[in-house]
Amino acid sequence: MEEKRLRAIEWMDGSVKFIDQTELPNKLDYVETTDYRVLIEAIKMLRVRGAPLIGITAAYAVVTAVREAIDTKVSDPLNWTMKAIREIGASRPTARNLFFALERMKEAVESKGAGEMEKLFDIVLSIAQDIEKEDEEMCLKMGEHGSSLIEDGFGIITHCNTGMLVTAGQGTALGVVYHASRQNKKLHVYADETRPLLQGARLTTWECKNYGIHVTLICDNAAATVVRQGKVNCAIVGADRIASNGDTANKIGTYNLALICKAHNVPFYVAAPYSTFDFSLKSGDEIPIEERKPEEIVKINKGWIAPEGIDAYNPAFDVTPAELISAIITEEGVFKPPYGEWKEMDAK
Ligand code: MRU
Predict the structure, then answer these.
(1) Is the CB of 155 under 6 A from ligand 1?
(2) What is the pTM of this model?
(3) What is the average pLDDT across 218-239?
(4) Which among 74, 107, 139 is the end of a domain?
């Protein structure tokens, strides 16, 4: 694993370096910045994406904001930093990890006086590095727990991209696949292309190919056929937010896949760390779902694929009801329904 390790984001000598995922698979391009506004733009445009990575990026965005407040000698540095945190929080609404990271940052800012900005900088940097490290460790544990569900010879269907590009480690759902493959289980991944932004086609196949996993790309609307043909033994997806009752928000199309799996009696697994859980929400109905611009679905490579001006609806996520989820893989273990014991994980 080590030699194939990919770092989607890194803190390097006072700046943040990240892979611009919109350029993949054509170019592996890195961006370096010390400007939190560039990081906000990167989150909004999905240059950095996936729930855990959005959280880590948000944390480093706060670090760069605190540095800027110090270096430009703003008149009210704490209020200025809080305003920057609010701007970062407005970048994308669904991934719980973003708010999980910002809540930790806010607490640190609130604990300091205006004369303690250098101290605050050290604190927010160490929180961001902790979030990154914790994420890497959680991925490994999810991999360990999740791979107990995977047998040699399994076909596995995935949706969106959930690997090294979206975490500080090996990934959530794809992390489980990587872990099982290191146990010498021969696996075959069927990657949903994931319209409209093609995270499955552009990123999951790229990651799997680099990692030596047998991967086959399918159109989203081929999933039912592939499952019906008996090519897959389970589905594993990630999550952007999980409510107390286990309802799970993930990339649009995940719900379709869960329904397909249910209809064909194929286990449907979700893999996510505790930073994705939102126990303040009773059910998935309360999860804020991001709606993105119609341009993402009416154009491909800037060319129209629908009549100009046509009405289009583009929700970026959907909610899979808990009853369709066979198990949720976390760093604490594999949880099976009924999903009642979350509270213990929350107290961690
Ligand atoms: O819009 P994206 O690409 O950020 O959506 C990402 C997903 O939906 C992932 O499946 C989810 O974040 C879980 S991956 C760790």
Answers:
(1) no
(2) 0.95
(3) 98
(4) 139
